[in-house]
Amino acid sequence: MSFKLLVCILGLALISVGRGQDHGPRAEPAAGGSSGVPDSRLELNLRVSDLPATDGGSDPWTFQKLVDEVTVSFSVTDGRGFVQDVTQENIRVLDDHKPVVRILAFRHQRDLPLRLGLLVDTSASVNPRFRFEQQAATQFLRKIVRHGLDQAFVIGFADHARITQDYSDDPGQLAAGVAALHNGGGTALFDAIHGACEKLSAALGNDPVARVLVVLSDGDDNTSRTTLNQAINMAQIRDITIYTINTRSETVDFSRVGLTAKGDGALKEIAEQTGGRSFVRMSSWELTRAFSAIEKEKRNRYSLSYQPRDLEENGRFRSIQIAAKKSGRRLRIHARKGYYAKLESIR
After folding, report:
1. CA-CA distance, 84 to 75, in Å (whole number)?
2. Which residues have a Cβ under 8 Å from the Cβ of 227 and sit 6 or more positions away?
3. Per-residue pLDDT, 315
């Protein structure tokens, strides 16, 4: 019997023993789940793939997680502005059109650390206001990132994404990252969103955080291998809210009207499906207002974790419907539309 096969058998035995005991804390959900919430269920299923040769090949162990817990971020408005005093008692949640088993956690996001990604289109298709957009983005980062609590990174993308500033809470470093962005190349928007979502989810640790991605682009993707739906799915799985700012100028190029409509539609779809907002046709003044609106909304969002009913590993889309009523008034909820129920690999 080979050494690695013996290790596999011993590993399976240890997991079986561990499941029969309840010593120590439960394993924590990786991305999309709320950390440290009691009564959540996390199953670790060991799948042993074909064992490689014993010459130092890749690790044959693949873990998968099925998290019987869903976390969703949302904001609440009443027609006059954001409602800041919503409680769990004001909320009703339907998952896949069914009442949830129970709500596991409810909190205001202003109390959570922020993990923010700024994703800037630097391709040749972006408009001539690029330098002003850099200045507005820098001001936004200076205002929204709280030193010692929040972390942000800056990524520019054309044919490929490039990190110009990794996670930091230093305004000077973030400003330098924005200043390092340069124009040129094609547009791989969906690839960049997928990669930025992976980066946001990888930095979670054990404590709950708010995950936000702000995208500046004209939406005209022409080189991505990732599809629009795949980019959206990644954000939904990781509970990442995406705000999109359309950098296209108000001047219409009639030779590209079809591509323009497709790009505008993609940016709107990304924001709506992930619980964010889409800002279009930004003048210089409106761009600054858009950043201010994102900052204000971020400080007025809630985070809700719940156990869904009849969750199955089937890859099917499950809708999320949240309703809120306070003092007899129905309130408006802004949240992602749902998620896909499937296992995620853990390595």
Report:
1. 9
2. 190
3. 77
